[in-house]
Amino acid sequence: MNAPSIRYPSIIAPAVPATLRLAPASHPCTLVSFFLRLNKHHINITTDSSTYTCKYGSTPILSARNYHSWKNNITNLLTMDDSLEIVLGTELAPAGNVTAQARDFRKGSQRAFEIIYSSTEPSIQTFLNRLGHRDPHSAWEALRER
To answer: Residue 104 and residue 109: Cα distance in Å, rounded?
Structure first.
């Protein structure tokens, strides 16, 4: 799959290539939004890293000061993703690791962790990395207790 391209006239910014390639998103949710601004001969890409946005909506990223509002917002996003029960621990992995249900559970678990992880600021991502696994239920509980 080709990466999306942003085309701009080379006469506006002759010092940069005529096409700027952006890496394709590996997940339907993204932490940042890209804004393109042309300044004479420079191209600046800035990001809005204070908001997490996905196909289900957006929320301010989790910081040390906004856990309760983040939790309410991310709960809604996880509900729309149909992975909240995995995060809460009320849906457990089915027996047997090769069934279609087990595969669906793994995918839902991976999506849920990515939503949680991507909606946090870098210092909290470091905290989640130190857990040593990518289990969304454990991450959810660790953030609650933090």
So the answer is: 8
Q: Which residues contact 38 (CB under 8 A, 6 or more apart)?
A: 8, 12, 13
Half-sphere exposure of 78 (CA within 13 A, CB side): 27
Torsion of CA 135, 105, 79, 140, to 10 degrees: -10
The encoded tokens of residue 140 equal 């959810």
Q: What is the mean pLDDT of residues 99-124?
A: 95
Residues 81-93: pLDDT tens digits?
999 999 999 999 9
Instruction: Find residue 34's DSSP bridge partners.
Output: 47
Consecutive H or E run containing 86: helix 84-88
Q: How many CB atoms lie under 10 A from the CB of residue 115?
A: 24
Condensed to tens digits (0 to 9), the pLDDT of residues 34-86 reads 444 443 433 333 345 799 999 999 999 999 999 999 999 999 999 999 999 99
The ranges assigned to domains in the chain are 5-47, 61-145
